[in-house]
Amino acid sequence: MRVIIMGCGRVGEQVSRRMDEKGHHVVVIDADERARDRLGPKFRGEVVVGVGFDREVLLRAGIENADAFAATSSSDNANIIAARIARNIYHVPRVVARLFDPRRAEIYQRLGLVTISSTNWGAERIYELITHADLDAVQTFGQGEVALIEIEAPPRLVGRMVNQVTIPGEISVVAITRQGEAQIPVLGSEFREGDRLHFAVHARAMSRFEMLLGLGEGA
Fold this sequence. Notes:
Number of domains: 2
Number of helices: 7
Structural class: alpha/beta
Number of strands: 11
Mean pLDDT: 85
CATH superfamily of the largest domain: NAD(P)-binding Rossmann-like Domain
CATH class of the largest domain: Alpha Beta
Low-confidence stretches: none
């Protein structure tokens, strides 16, 4: 996966290092030439010096071929501008923006952008959102602790019931859309081929959720 991280502060640095350690192609954008030094000698990725929403800088970072973009600078405005450019102009599949002012979160969510506003666990959450590529987080709640995930019923779930995938406090089935009609399921509702499923998933359960659905098996 080719990942661009805009901003090499504490969160951006942690995300960049972890993605690099997991074997992803990481490109860091930062206005400070010392960003490379902060990432350390073990970092195998690239560093592009410049402003993260500048067109030439983004092109040098490989935005046209990026699989994911994370805006993690110290400026809400810069992050949201860069995130919108990545999503709307270059159509990067997975875009996450760090947000300091949670009061702006609802506005940005209306724009279709996933935001993270807690610096304490922001790096870990950004990593989860980027790497769980089979999952489509259509909305997040609070400071990103809970995500609304939309997915077509995978083969493993067809014929099974809601109570078999419900984990109290971690994973809940919110709705099932079948032939264009949505319904609120009960524990005995059965999943069918072609169903569109909406799950509420806590951040700590994302990996467990993927295993439950059988995503990524055999890769």
